[in-house]
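Database export, one record per block. Field names are fixed; values are copied verbatim from the stored entry.
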Amino acid sequence: MLTTPLLRVQVRGRGIRPRLVDPEDPALRERAARIGDIFEQALAGRWTRGQLEARLRELEGLEVDHRLTRGLAKVMWDRSELATVAPLDPVEIRQRVFAHAAATGPLARRPGPTGRRVAADVIAEVAADLGVAPDEVSASLYADLREEQRIVDCRPLPPDRLLHRYNVAQVQAILLRAAWMKVRLVAPRPKRVAQLLRFARFHQLMYRVETVAGGAAVLLHLDGPESLLRQSSRYGMQLATFFPAVLLQEGAWTVEAEVLWGRRRLAKKLLITHEWGLRSHYRDTGVWRSRTEEWFEERWGEDQQGWIRHPGELQVVEGQHIIVPTWTFRKQGRTAHLDVVGFWRRSYLQQRIERTPADVGLAVSRRLCGDKEGLPDALRDRVIDFAEVIPVDRVVDLLERIAR
């Protein structure tokens, strides 16, 4: 994710938009290729973080737009893994070397006529005590410092894909400051609506969805991180990582968001459309499931007391609101539904219950509560709260109460 110093945005009046790059620009492709090559060389040579940062600074010196170069590099940093690589435990080695140096008297910077020992002598003596080579002690001494971490994995991108990913990353960084976000889909297929809602559920977002323009469009309302009193940073990351799912839509779409910008947190409007040419890096699939869903399905099995579990079915409520619950359950002609909610507030749950048919129950994680109050008793007839795993027995009781 891009940080604020790396963002390239235009702020005009109440509007804000990222300064996108053209992935087809030959000069930009060459710059992206150079950055990709540097990371591949770093992986092949097991460079340290310090070595890689120094090489990237050299590249910055050859370019005019340093912020763009750093932003492209940040995308690659996010696709890389660094780790402490040392033959011996760095903490233990430092303790041994420093203690031995202190016990044997002052050291000289370099060998000389005084005959004082130097650092290499201390390292050799510690290595002899441990029965290892001096090079192993030297390599381990500071290996756990940030600058000495080594790159152990990197997933390179072709130049055009790196530039596309950079454009999306700019939008994501802006959305970290969103108060709310709306996604409007024009004449979408039901399959695509269900897919987008699965992504919203997978990222544990607070949302509601409705049809507009006489049913010709679907409007998805998403609460932003600035609407939460607690866990706003975590929620902001979830909203930002959800955004590429919107780019999988086949038809026309727009995204509108209000972001609180700058130190004064002034409200600015972000408006994005399919015409921007943003490209998602997500796989075009609608089967992503959270661990919560997987754990529950494993425990539910084929059926529970006659209740058969099915994937949630898309429903239009009162001709306007759309619901795609997580699961639909059937038993001897009776039907009930259960929807797993991500982040939540008391007011949000109350609104969800008011807009949801009586045969739909909700499951909420206590860990994802976004305000200080927990689940009110007045909602417990329709809402199940849980810590890690949705309790099967309580779901059965809920289904018996709400089924039609």
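Remark 1: The chain has a mean pLDDT of 90.
Remark 2: Residues 26-45 form the longest helix (20 residues).
End of record.
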